[in-house]
Amino acid sequence: MKRVVLEEYLDVITSMENFADGILVVDDKARVVYFRNYRTGITPLLREEVVGKNILEIYPDLTEETSTIYKALRTGESTINKLEPMTTYDGMTMNLLDNTFPIRQGGKIIGAVSIARYPDFIKPEISISDFEEKYRKDLYTMEDIVGRSPQVLTLRTQVERVSRTHSSVLIYGETGTGKELVAQSIHTASNRKSKLFISQNCAAIPGNLLESIFFGTTKGSYTGAENKPGIFEIADGGTIFLDEINSMDINMQAKLLKVIEEKKITRIGGLESKKVDVRIIAAVNEPPMQCIREGKMRPDLFYRLGSVMIQIPPLRERSNDIDVLAECFIHQYNKEMGKSIEGLSEEVRELLPRYDWPGNVREFKNAIEGAFNFCDGKIIQKEDLPRYIFEELEAREPEPAPLAMGETLKKSIDDYEKHIILSELGKTKNLTALADRLGITRQALNQKMKKYGISTSKQV
Q: Of the four, 142, 221, 298, 299, which is 20 to 30 A from 102 by CA?
């Protein structure tokens, strides 16, 4: 079955020869089933040495958590133009510009294809922008920012306005809220959309290695160093997305700030500086001021990036978007899995907004995908969704206590309503979000808070 799908993709895969330095296809166990190396002069990997091996055997520095192949197999997410250093099993290290996509059949992920370029060795006659143009359609656009809540409408407006400028941007959002979606949407709506968008996760990468990734190296600057451009040279005219910048070494942050200010880079070991025109979009997954207090982010870098800041609301603060998100994901998985599911049951529609969704939109999307595997009708029922969601809801809801002597039903209901308002108050940033979460109007919420004597500095 997998061979049939590979043959269906074969024309597409082999047509990449002019755009790729290497193509690798794996099955659902991450074992290589197809491999072509068009640049044997750069890396000596041969088909007979690679086919049949797990991807982690070929690149031993990778883990299941850092591998874009495993990401595609487990989550169905693609990776677009990610530059990362890779070391093969024979000890050779090089920069690799990675584009990885899942392969589906009948809605099930049965493998993945990774298409690689070696940007340090790109031939002048092969334009890297041609390669990017081939995949630009896979980048997110503003239409992918789904929702009708005031928060999402504001977010889309901010993305549209920011895309008109060349200013650096800082995105703050919890894990799973869609920071890269927003970054790509800014890029694809801008006049840089015909140039490269390069994503670089800054977490857990040593400062010296990140410096070479950013700025490149000069031959002889250290043992084994070659003349290699960094991502600032490669993405000239385009956009660089630096995710989890709060995990970047503090000294490296200072060098990044200097490049942003001067718009010039110097390769490690080099003497000549080179002007670069790159837009920086950075992201943090913790509150920026908390990052500064804890020494994770330089204040001067924050002030430079934070002059244009976009905050992505967590799903729990826009729970009225759950219906439209569900509709979007149901449409997507109907196409991918060949099903015709029509929607959610009334019970599910009532329960899902009450869950906090700590993994945000990503967690919700995965829950809908999971439901597609179990649903055998037209409507997703409670039993089709992950059990942990409802176990969490049941654990949060206290057992109703019997009425105390002399207590009325109205008094008991009022006490419970007050308890709910107080417990949810600390989970939202303002009263508008709280009213939205409770499913009532802001005016009704103010009346209830006045009734129960609840005062808060969060009233805005």
A: 142
